[in-house]
Amino acid sequence: MEETKEKRIELAAFIRWINEKGWSPGTSTNYSFLHPEQEDKIVISRSGIDKTYFSEDDFMEIDREGKPAKGSEGIKPSAETLIHCELYNLFPSTRYILHTHSMPGTLLSGKKEWEEAITFSGYEVLKGLPGISTHESEVELPIFANDQDMDRFRLLIRDNQNRLQTGGFLMAKHGLYAWGNSLQEAKRHLEIYEFLLTCELNLLQIR
Amino acid sequence: MEETKEKRIELAAFIRWINEKGWSPGTSTNYSFLHPEQEDKIVISRSGIDKTYFSEDDFMEIDREGKPAKGSEGIKPSAETLIHCELYNLFPSTRYILHTHSMPGTLLSGKKEWEEAITFSGYEVLKGLPGISTHESEVELPIFANDQDMDRFRLLIRDNQNRLQTGGFLMAKHGLYAWGNSLQEAKRHLEIYEFLLTCELNLLQIR
Amino acid sequence: MEETKEKRIELAAFIRWINEKGWSPGTSTNYSFLHPEQEDKIVISRSGIDKTYFSEDDFMEIDREGKPAKGSEGIKPSAETLIHCELYNLFPSTRYILHTHSMPGTLLSGKKEWEEAITFSGYEVLKGLPGISTHESEVELPIFANDQDMDRFRLLIRDNQNRLQTGGFLMAKHGLYAWGNSLQEAKRHLEIYEFLLTCELNLLQIR
Amino acid sequence: MEETKEKRIELAAFIRWINEKGWSPGTSTNYSFLHPEQEDKIVISRSGIDKTYFSEDDFMEIDREGKPAKGSEGIKPSAETLIHCELYNLFPSTRYILHTHSMPGTLLSGKKEWEEAITFSGYEVLKGLPGISTHESEVELPIFANDQDMDRFRLLIRDNQNRLQTGGFLMAKHGLYAWGNSLQEAKRHLEIYEFLLTCELNLLQIR
């Protein structure tokens, strides 16, 4: 673990910042990065940690199939570890994966009328998402039904790979996954989606 | 009091954190823990303290019937002390009780149409509550009418013991009680309920 | 000024805390306390100061009619100084007066249908207001039309003295005045009214 | 650059404060000031910087037509640099220009029914805007359609100069520009408009 200490410190600080925003209630949410030197390893947040106090020691190492790696044996990884594994496999340039559990993401993903996606249209901030160069764009943030069976959910993501080109998706009544080729990029995608979800929620609340 | 100093410091910091979130307006809310060595004693916040500046010295010790214990004679405990006493009696594994007074809790508990409970359904975050292992659950957060007569209110809680298995209830236009076997667990229950109340309020505000 | 330094430091810290909450946009809002030794003097915030950076040096001394006192000649007091003078005269036990400019207070005071008052009913937190001992109470927070003529507005307050027994009033589309016999009490009244205004606004936003 | 170091430190701190409020999601927003000694130079934020960590080194110097000045060759200025250039030309006393990307500004500017302006009426806080001395005023905050062609957008601003006398405008689904003769004044205009946008959004959300 020692060789990733700096990255773990940086990501832990980011996780506490996320928590301050109210985006990780209870012990929800999880976070990972690809080991910078050993790409067969993923460094991921442990299960059940309160993100208010999350530290660089609250990570563990797993292999690309979600099994605890040497030095992390016996530690329980997040229940959603396989989602991380699958995203790293589907998008090989991905280096960081972030999962938040904000109120707007939880609420909007649970509305029946949007069973498949929320569409954002005409927003300047869309230009911060992969492949978008003008506000005259439409971006679909896919919504997948929540599932406790992670093997099944992993296949669902794989089957929907073509819908995951803009760096994020929602699990219904569960929250947002966002990723990128660096912490900076993953953070940018995350912030943009959280911002847009807040916009859309407030728009729906206008009489 | 000296032997509980570390726990008082920890809880006082948590109380100021609650206050920063706006969940303890005026001098509202109260907090307690069971004395770790003398289980006939409860350490509870004093009455009338502004939680912005709450410190480890703003606690007192009471017995299991709410009377000031030796060393705390003449200090006024919170008006709602008997609620704490009753919860420790009903749920013997409880170690911490937390009471917040947030806007969503205050407002939603006062809606006439929900005179008995608010039901949360299908949320991933429900898995952080006692006995819940899947999002495919329904959890009822009981609402009790507010009452200035604490002897009467205490009996009401006792009569409703079977509805209090998921670690929380609301007093109408008054706020949330949440508890757990540790500060970490009580905090988790509290955050989950506050998060869900905010979700439900925003859902009701969608046109 | 020197003899009030400690009180100015304490109030300035409180003012920056108010600002952090977003309750003093632009250079709005003003604050005062009665000189603790010379009751013919009021210590009040100067005009036009950004509250983000408000310090103990941003006060001045005025007499009970709002004229700059010795040592503060040539400094411009807040435009609303006469409101403070009148409240100290009407309620002789008052020691602190606080004026915020929050979004809920600004917005709700401007609704035509509440030209005279907002009524708060059944809230536990009402018990923190003067003379209220049960949640089974109704408290009216008076709303007065905004006015640039402070001599006229002062008379309006005087004429409505009997409606000002619970420590606060609103100026329409302008904000809240709250006061008390100590900073602690004035802060309590302020927080309670701001909390209740947020509740009522959210209640109106439920479909 | 060295001679503007103090001003860059001051503005960078302000930019991080803006970010904390959630008004600069992703790498959105930009900020500038006129070089205090060489009025043919503008100091402006670089393109693509996350404002969470914005520092005094994240500025660059450009000429009045938006070209990188000596010492800043090869650095990419913000895409919206020409908006800054045009505003400094149209309003020669302007010293600071601030651009935020808040949720209320983004959302309200995108409502079809307000294609040209949002009108604020009767608010006390209007008195903090240029030329307004009473709350009995109406101020129009112009809304311009978003545009990726900055040469064209610049002309649009020029043609609407007479509508820009109160220190701000909105770009649809993009955010607010505000300016002033000092950082203090520009900040005041910015805060007032953001406050009023939040008021109007909440007003529209009342049932």
UniProtKB/TrEMBL annotation, chains A, B, C, D:
Catalytic activity: 5-(methylsulfanyl)-D-ribulose 1-phosphate = 5-methylsulfanyl-2,3-dioxopentyl phosphate + H2O
Transcription among keywords: no
Bound cofactor: record note: Binds 1 zinc ion per subunit.
Coiled coil (UniProt feature): none
Pathway: Amino-acid biosynthesis; L-methionine biosynthesis via salvage pathway; L-methionine from S-methyl-5-thio-alpha-D-ribose 1-phosphate: step 2/6
Record-listed Zn(2+) binding positions: 99, 101
Keyword tags: Amino-acid biosynthesis, Lyase, Metal-binding, Methionine biosynthesis, Zinc
Obligatory cofactor(s): Zn(2+)
EC category name: lyase
Class II aldolase/adducin N-terminal domain location: 9-201
Family: Belongs to the aldolase class II family. MtnB subfamily.
The protein, known as: Methylthioribulose-1-phosphate dehydratase
